[in-house]
Amino acid sequence: MPAAPTGTDTLAADLARSVGRLRRSLNREVRAGTALPPLPEAQLEILRLVDRRPGLRVQDAAAELRLAPNTVSTLVHRLVDAGLVRRMADPADGRVAHLRLSAAAEQRLRRWRDRRQEILAARLAELDGADRSAVERAVPVLERVAVWLEEARSPERGTAAVPSPSRSGSPLDGAAPAGVRRGR
């Protein structure tokens, strides 16, 4: 018989549901407001990854996304065919290709991010001061949890290696990750 859910279990379920719902709703609203043909989420994830790490290889993308290399290769092939990703041969080893976004993909991602930000800014502006302040305080905490989850997974084994939250430098120890702004 499963154990009764704890307060943390309930919070985790509520947070996962809310974050997923927020992302889906926001994606629907952005798609409805743009004339761009929709892309599958897996292809969008590759575009976002190549945007963050231009020049990475297919096998690096597969490791980071925790997908099979042949799956990522197929997705990249479709993105190349759509004119959104370019494969650039490595000058030192012609067998190796590095991925870069095309100008069309860069523009698409920029339009997507801009539209998403407009939508969220409009909704946040409708919140009262206390709710907006609560969101501002929550963002750095959520960012630390996201970083912790990313760091907790061991790509070599494909399993979670759960670090101790009390270890020095843990994203949960109260220190903001590099590049993450603290709440105002």
What do you see in this structure?
The protein folds into two domains: 24-126, Arc Repressor Mutant, subunit A (Orthogonal Bundle); 128-184, no CATH class. The protein contains six helices and four strands; from the N terminus they run H-H-H-H-E-E-H-H-E-E. It has helices spanning 7-32, 41-52, 58-65, 69-81, 103-125, 129-152; strands spanning 85-89, 97-101, 153-154, 159-160. The protein has a two-stranded antiparallel ribbon with strand order 1-2. A two-stranded antiparallel sheet has the order 3-4. It starts with 6 loop residues before the first helix and ends in a 24-residue tail after the last strand. The model is unreliable at 156-184 (pLDDT under 50).
The overall pLDDT, averaged over residues, is: 82
Largest β-sheet summary: 2 strands, antiparallel
Could you say how many structural domains there are in total? 2
The ordered H/E elements are HHHHEEHHEE
- Total DSSP helices: 6
Q: C-alpha Rg, in Å? A: 19 Å
* First-residue to last-residue Cα separation: 45 Å
CATH architecture of the largest domain: Orthogonal Bundle
Task: List unreliable stretches of 5+ residues.
Answer: 156-184
What is the β-strand count?
4
Q: Estimate the strand proportion.
A: 5-15%
Across the major sheet, the strand order is: 1-2
